[in-house]
Amino acid sequence: MENIKLAGIGKRILALIIDWIVISLVQTTVNTIFFSGAALSISDLLRGDEIDTQALAGIIGTSHLVSLAIYLLYDGLLTSSDRQGTLGKMALKIKVVNESGQKLSQNESLLRAFMKIVSSSICCIGYFIAFFNKKEQSLHDIVGKTYVVEE
């Protein structure tokens, strides 16, 4: 790991913004296609008509689970691919490696993706950790034993 240059926090933040845009577009498209029936229920609610709140809660809950699955697949599979990063990281020519400087396995990548969800919980505090440690690792990097480096 001595010869590897860590990616700066600025590049990592920009990559994250690009990824949020990509994921939001995909999630919105998928949810629109599969859950357009929920729009009818919501419009009924706005008109004051009676609706099945349990059914609506089920649709919303399922929509959130689908969005979570999309995110985990996007981040988990792309990070464990030969490109070693999401579209945002690819655009900025940075990648994710393990402590040995090697490509992540799918399990390591999925753990890291799941921990990114934890990092973003509670006001993104897990991301801010990177500002206060020498290796610029966020919570998900520390738990996953990973580094974001320049290509």
Structural overview:
The radius of gyration is 18 Å and the shape is elongated. The model has no long low-confidence stretch (mean pLDDT 87). The longest helix has 27 residues, at 53-79. It has a two-stranded antiparallel sheet with strand order 1-2. The chain is 66% helix and 7% strand. The chain has helices spanning 9-34, 36-47, 53-79, 87-91, 106-128, 139-144, and strands at 94-98, 146-150. It has one domain (9-150). The protein has 151 residues and is mainly α.
Structure, briefly:
The protein has 151 residues and is mainly alpha-helical. The protein has 6 helices and 2 strands.
Name the overall outline. elongated
Spatial arrangement of strands, main beta sheet: 1-2
Low-confidence stretches: none
Q: Whole-number radius of gyration?
A: 18 Å
Mean pLDDT: 87
Task: Identify the notable features of this structure and list them briefly.
about 150 residues; mainly alpha; two-stranded antiparallel ribbon
Secondary structure elements and pairings:
Elements: H1 9-34, H2 36-47, H3 53-79, H4 87-91, E1 94-98, H5 106-128, H6 139-144, E2 146-150
Antiparallel strand pairs: 1-2
